[in-house]
Design brief:
By secondary structure, this protein is mainly α. It has helices at residues 3-10, 15-30, 60-65. The relative contact order is 0.06.
């Protein structure tokens, strides 16, 4: 999400919620941390593994549940 998109979304919030969001962002910047960069979800897919199941990403329901139409 770009800074402009974030700003656009933040402006949709009530003023009190925008103030809280601004305080949290400023506190995070002051602490020198980037909370999103530390989020483990951003690491998903960086080290993929092979499980031997062809088209597993497309047919995961069949592999997980054994159903052709799930």
């Amino acid at each position: 999400m770009s800074l402009q998109e974030l700003e656009t979304e933040a402006l949709k919030l009530p003023e009190s919620e925008r103030a809280v969001l601004a305080e949290r962002i400023l506190a995070s910047l002051a602490a020198g941390s980037a909370p999103l960069a530390d989020d483990p979800v951003f690491g998903l897919g960086r080290a993929p593994v092979s499980c031997g199941a062809p088209r597993a990403s497309v047919e995961h329901d069949r592999y997980l549940y054994g159903s052709e139409d799930a």
